[in-house]
């Protein structure tokens, strides 16, 4: 029997029924998961048989009634999508555009990141170039020895010396060290380039360097210093002289690139403090020249004080003592330095420097009178017979052994011989001298006979 038109459900009823059926079949209540177009393209296509039991979107494994029911549900889904598209015609487009917009945003963001990275890299590159350009440090003003010496205040020095004398009473070595420290601080602003003492000693005659660097010290500062030095014993001053010499030779070794003296027991000093060491050394030698005589055996017998490179320092020291006492100067020359000239290792430079020293001593005002009258000092002769023998050898060599320095020895020989033979005739001291002279004269005659 055919159903009448009136008994057929209306469109609204059909839609309501389909919605109820669709709600039962779709537990997500019509909501769909939005995915990006790019990600959908990357997904793999469904296989012929998937876990949902569909083949090409059609359910399998059910009875025929269920198949028609599935077809009705699919028809209802299509109808619902049409209705949703009519009520919100721009929803899908909006969703698609939003997805594309987000994709573009991500792409733009990546581009922006790339551009930012490029910009930062460029800026870093510029910054790196700027870092390579080192800023020049402002040059420190060069302070000369005379400028530093001029800033030493005599009253301040006097107060300092009074303080250390009270603080270290009975400890003369410490007092002398502190005395050197005071001048070390005063001259610490002077660079080694302003006082290249090695070059000065090597390239200048003794007459030009004898007063360096003491000539820069003012008279009040010098007088305050030597008055304080006079209060110390010869023994303490002798130890202080060796300390100063060790410091100078340590600096010499460092400038020559050799092993530093500080590794062998001496103290390590900076080139900047050498001005102070020379200043205090000269002050002691000029105020207490006998302190030099007390250390002559050490300078003669210790290897670290010997050698061509150390000779200018030793000669300079003797020249300082000679400023105060010509007899001490000649004594040091005859007992320590003359042997170098007559030795096998002598050379023109050594001979010249040693001759400069004795010529300077003998050229001093009234030098002959002073030396002849003081020919004996503390029981020792200024020019002992052994020194006279060496003097004879270098003054009167064989004709083949004559050198340029021979004439210079001939010029000073008569004065030195007079000092060597000075004394009361017939005295016990002179009889000893005569006997020694006779001994080496016979020896020299025998050598001449066999030559």
From TrEMBL:
InterPro entries, per the entry:
TMEM214
Give the compositionally biased regions (Basic residues).
Answer: 133-142
Q: Where is the composition biased (Acidic residues)?
A: 106-116
Q: Give the region (Disordered) as residue ranges.
A: 36-144
Which cellular component terms (GO) are annotated to the entry? endoplasmic reticulum; Golgi apparatus
Biased composition (Basic and acidic residues) is annotated at 75-84, 117-132
Residue ranges that the Swiss-Prot or TrEMBL entry lists as coiled coil = none
Q: PANTHER family annotated for this entry?
A: F26K24.17 PROTEIN (PTHR13448:SF14), TRANSMEMBRANE PROTEIN 214 (PTHR13448)
Please identify the protein, giving its name as recorded. Answer: Uncharacterized protein
Q: Which organism is it from?
A: Linum tenue
Q: What is the lineage of its organism?
A: Eukaryota, Viridiplantae, Streptophyta, Embryophyta, Tracheophyta
């Amino acid at each position: 029997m055919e159903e009448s038109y009136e008994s057929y459900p209306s469109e609204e009823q059909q839609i309501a029924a389909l919605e109820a059926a669709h709600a039962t079949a779709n537990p997500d209540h019509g909501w769909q998961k939005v995915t990006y177009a790019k990600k959908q393209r990357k997904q793999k296509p469904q296989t012929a048989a998937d876990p949902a039991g569909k083949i090409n979107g059609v359910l399998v494994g059910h009875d025929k009634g269920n198949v028609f029911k599935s077809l009705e549900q699919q028809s209802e889904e299509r109808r619902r999508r049409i209705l949703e598209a009519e009520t919100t015609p721009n929803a899908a487009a909006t969703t698609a555009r939003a997805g594309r917009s987000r994709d573009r945003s991500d792409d733009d963001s990546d581009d922006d990141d790339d551009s930012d990275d490029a910009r930062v890299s460029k800026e870093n590159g510029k910054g790196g170039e700027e870092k390579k350009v080192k800023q020049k440090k402002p040059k420190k003003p060069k302070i000369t020895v005379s400028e530093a010496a001029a800033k030493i205040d005599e009253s301040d020095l006097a107060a300092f010396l009074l303080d250390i004398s009270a603080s270290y009473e009975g400890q003369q070595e410490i007092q002398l060290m502190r005395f050197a420290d005071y001048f070390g601080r005063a001259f610490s602003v002077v660079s080694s380039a302003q006082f290249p003492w090695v070059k000065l000693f090597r390239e200048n005659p003794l007459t030009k360097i004898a007063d360096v660097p003491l000539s820069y010290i003012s008279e009040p500062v010098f007088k305050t210093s030597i008055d304080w030095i006079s209060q110390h014993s010869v023994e303490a001053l002798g130890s202080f002289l060796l300390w100063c010499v060790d410091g100078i030779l340590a600096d010499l070794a460092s400038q020559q690139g050799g092993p530093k003296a500080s590794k062998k027991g001496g103290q390590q000093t900076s080139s900047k403090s050498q001005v102070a060491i020379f200043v205090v050394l000269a002050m002691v030698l000029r105020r207490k020249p006998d302190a030099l005589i007390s250390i002559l055996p050490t300078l003669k017998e210790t290897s670290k004080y010997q050698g061509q490179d150390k000779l200018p320092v030793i000669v300079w020291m003797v020249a300082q003592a000679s400023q105060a006492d010509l007899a001490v100067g000649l004594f040091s020359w005859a007992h320590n330095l003359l042997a170098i000239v007559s030795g096998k290792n002598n050379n023109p430079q050594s001979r010249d420097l040693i001759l400069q020293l004795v010529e300077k001593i003998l050229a001093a005002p009234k030098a002959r009178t002073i030396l002849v009258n003081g020919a004996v000092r503390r029981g020792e002769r200024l020019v002992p017979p052994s020194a006279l023998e060496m003097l004879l050898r270098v003054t009167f060599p064989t004709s083949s052994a004559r050198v340029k320095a021979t004439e210079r020895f001939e010029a000073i020989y008569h004065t030195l011989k007079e000092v060597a033979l000075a004394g009361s005739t017939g005295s016990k001291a002179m009889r000893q001298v005569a006997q020694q002279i006779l001994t080496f004269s016979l020896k020299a005659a025998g050598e001449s006979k066999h030559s």
